[in-house]
Design goal:
Distance between the termini of chain A: 81 Å
Oligomer: homodimer
Strand content of chain A: 5-15%
Structural class of chain A: alpha/beta
Largest interface: A-B, 149 and 150 residues
């Protein structure tokens, strides 16, 4: 199509062109921009019931082609009312999953260039750009040089679909590395029936470790890899971080049961409270000779993005030096849309040894000569999308400075929210150190009225400081805890039902709390302040209603 | 942004807007259309050497933001020269990975709505539309009703990233189903230490089966799931299909070794020759009581699309009735861009039992009440993109009739190419039944000149019919086979090096052959005829050169 033909097409009636004409791309462009600009007009959580969509659509695909003009209105009428608007600045649950214009451009080009680039030859630019931009990212995060593609240890990065996919990929590599290292040490020939027999005995004993705050994908990964898994208890008095001493006693325990720890997930930014595991003490334990065969994976899916700021990189990046693998999701907090989960390893051979399968249709002179990277051997699926494009576009469009500004700004919004919560110690207690744009808090037990409608007394005072180690000992203490949890949940549900803002709920060590994250690309002070107003107002209303309810009961 | 503001922005200087302005989306739209329209001007296989890109790009990301006008030229100058153009009508290797405008629109909307929709509540429209369009697809392919979402058996479809991901997902489900069914049958309490001990003994004995023509992802899936795998030999005399009798003897064999077959991949459209396994005889074996615990997965990644035609559906669809799972990649031959791998199961519970992990942050009233589908429990990764949109757009834009027309047309192109090959029995032999737009052929051994420059004599004639069961018995027969393979490979390499057309090479039962597939959305008669001309000319040149070389050697 020439430029002239394109211009003509733009003026032609859309109905005339049956197979979704180019003009539809222009209409869509406008629609996407308009969605973005009007996003705060939608309830952030959709007001629909399960099964809302089926009655609105036919039960079979149409037999005849439909014009785009017939399709597009359905997006506004049927799809958008059923979306949860992750891009809304009023979305403050989970961690963000942002999208930006350069990222959309990357998706569009990637689709236009569609290639399931399972090896280098299947689209060299796809592989080579991926290696380059992941090196850019590793440097931007100040990761140890061993994670770079040219490192002597054989390091490098690969884009995975999600942190969970990255984790199970590493677990499979870890499982194979562990059993083969053991067989090598025992002098068993490879391959040999003796080795296979030994592996069959070893595998059922393998156990993956993580803390009780590690994302659920570690437990799922262990199930997929067919190994055992144990989670190690953390405590709020240690900021929900995994510590060297608890790891050490768990290692002793599992070994005393005849099990063999082969893998551990360490976390920078846990799912519930964004805590950082205690790397100094963990690294001491994990560098003991008996533990060096344990694969160390660092899940920094969300908070890893903060390493783009020098103040975080200087303290956190060195902690990663011992890790076999490190993962950060640019699709959470670095302006690239889902999916862009960036996995770095210090030695690619561990992945390729576990995951490489040859077949005649994969053969080509460049791969056979070992000149190129075939990323299919670094991952579970065979085919791969050209995801490096969107990372390239975003890193260039924003520049490192733009990315740092964004992280700094959203952290400041988080600090502002935490300050608001702190300003009302009569109502709320903060349950873990607010950081990385996340605040975790709940209704302070002392803010609840007792059955007489009076403030409850906890620990001999009506306004105790939050004691993370507090473990209810008496039935009445237990009841106060349960009530604080229930009220906190009630407040969350009321707020979310309003559709004005979508906040989170989680629980750690028996304490239910509210999570507020202000970190998506559209986050702004005005929305964070409004969220606080809603939280405060709803809390006061719920507490007042309870007081009245109890007073009435007494009366 | 109002329509007026948008118009103004379109006229503003692009350089002024640092963060990739909306106008870039318009520029991109034109660029994408232009790429599509000019695709035949590019060499289909890029003329670059490994490592071509790194010297052209900086080693770190820029610190300051770059304008889109600075970024976009790099796509034409640095990326496109390194692309393998899967969308070119001259791309005839592997199987296609097509893209269409409505599919690009789907990707763009999906990016705009970015949500890692791991459960229903995280974006209800994402889950509900997926269920609906996969039902549309199942009906369009005439799959048995048990694969529909409302089936009494608990069936339904889910979009996976690739057929390989679908396979490993099913294998993990199969593994768990098998060991737990066995433990149940043995009366072991669940959970119990006895059951765990039994599972530890059972798992290393599990073996997955497939034919030697099954895609490599079955072997890889078995490695990931930590089970054994054995491939069953096929023969060209049986069209490279897996048969009931060879399966039966393999089952006897593995059981005699103390192993337990738990899973098998059956294929509709094998990777090398697009063969269909012999379902009637396989179904007889697999329905024997001793074999019903074996999970039957049908990999119809490519050829499954042909079931949209009634003539194929009537014969092939009923064969799938016994399968636990069935997979077709719309991103190959059904006009949706990669990734859109559609997996159907007869009972979702087998997936969710193996893959569901609970965590406090996933809890919501709809999921807790069992009212909704949480697709994260049907797959390995946690997060998921809104891929149903592009399927919806494509099925509506083309209509079933448009999709049928496309499959019919590309099959006709394939028949045309096969006819051309058949028209030169002096040069070529077809090594497997041409079907589904694929022709597999190689240089006929009798076309090779012997050391005196004369035609070689095989089987007592210079022009024998192709005998798929032919097994070279003598050294000279062996040598002719080896030469035919080498010449066939030489022809392929020469053609691909030209950059004019990209064809495939594979080998089955020791025979190397050329694969030509004419099935991407831009396929046209003119390109298929041109490909044939190139194949013919190159073959004649190679054979002539060999004759001359040998004559010279004699002279």
């Amino acid at each position: 199509m020439t430029a002239d033909e394109f211009r003509k097409a733009a003026h032609a009636a859309i109905e005339e062109s049956p197979f979704c004409p180019p003009i539809a791309l222009l209409m869509l462009t406008r629609a996407v921009i308009s969605y973005n600009d009007n996003i705060t007009n939608f309830p952030v959580l959709p007001k629909i019931e399960p099964g809302y969509l089926a009655p609105q659509l036919p039960t079979t695909a149409p037999d005849s082609p439909q014009a785009w003009s017939e399709i597009q209105p359905d997006i506004a009428e049927k799809i958008i009312p059923g979306l949860t608007h992750w891009q809304s600045p009023n979305f403050m649950n989970f961690y963000p999953a942002g999208v930006t214009y350069p990222s959309i451009l990357g998706e569009m080009y990637s689709a236009a260039f569609t290639a399931p680039a399972f090896n280098w030859l299947c689209s060299p630019a796809c592989t080579e750009l991926e290696t380059i931009v992941l090196d850019w990212l590793a440097k931007a995060l100040s990761l140890p040089a061993a994670f770079l593609s040219g490192s002597p240890s054989g390091g490098g990065g690969v884009i995975q679909g999600s942190a969970s996919e990255a984790i199970v990929t590493c677990m499979v590599a870890a499982r194979e590395r562990y059993v083969h290292a053991k067989c090598d040490a025992e002098g068993l020939a490879n391959p040999s029936p003796e080795r296979n027999a030994r592996i069959a005995i070893l595998r059922p004993k393998l156990i993956a470790l993580s803390s009780d705050q590690t994302h659920s994908s570690t437990a799922k990964g262990a199930a997929i890899a067919g190994t055992l898994h144990r989670s190690i208890k953390t405590s709020l008095s240690q900021d929900a971080a995994l510590t060297g001493s608890s790891l050490e006693s768990t290692l002793d325990q599992v070994r005393s049961e005849g099990l063999e720890p082969y893998y551990i997930t360490l976390t920078i930014g846990t799912t519930s409270t964004c805590s950082i595991d205690d790397f100094p003490s963990l690294n001491t334990i994990l560098s003991q000779p008996s533990n060096t065969q344990i694969w160390q994976h660092i899940d920094a899916a969300y908070a890893g993005s903060a390493l783009i700021l020098p103040e975080h990189a200087s303290t956190i990046s060195p902690m990663t030096a011992q890790a076999d693998s490190f993962n950060v999701n640019m699709h959470k907090w670095l302006l690239v849309n889902f999916d862009a989960s960036c996995l770095f390893v210090q030695n690619r051979n561990h992945l390729t040894r576990a995951l490489s399968i040859s077949a005649p249709y994969y053969q080509n002179s460049q791969s056979d000569a070992g000149l190129v990277t075939d990323y299919r051997d670094w991952q579970i699926p065979l085919g791969r999308r050209f995801r490096a494009l969107k990372i390239w576009f975003v890193m260039r469009s924003y520049g490192l400075q733009g990315m740092r500004d964004y992280i700094t700004y959203t952290c400041k919004l988080g600090d502002m929210f935490a300050e608001s919560v702190r300003s009302r110690p009569d109502l709320f207690e903060i349950i873990a150190k607010p950081q990385f744009a996340l605040t975790c808090f709940r209704v302070r037990p002392s803010a609840l009225s007792n059955s007489e409608g009076d403030p409850v007394v906890v620990d001999g005072t009506t306004d105790p400081a939050f004691d993370p180690a507090f473990d209810p000992a008496t039935a009445s203490e237990e009841q106060v805890e349960t009530e604080a949890n229930a009220v906190t949940k009630e407040i969350t549900d009321l707020i979310n039902a309003s559709g004005e803002v979508y906040i989170g709920n989680s629980s750690v060590a028996g304490k239910t709390f509210i999570r507020v994250v202000s970190a998506n690309p559209q986050a702004q002070e005005i929305y964070v302040r409004r969220c606080w107003d809603i939280v405060l107002k709803t809390t006061e209303e719920v507490l007042e209603k309870r007081r009245q309810g109890k007073s009435k009961k007494i009366a």
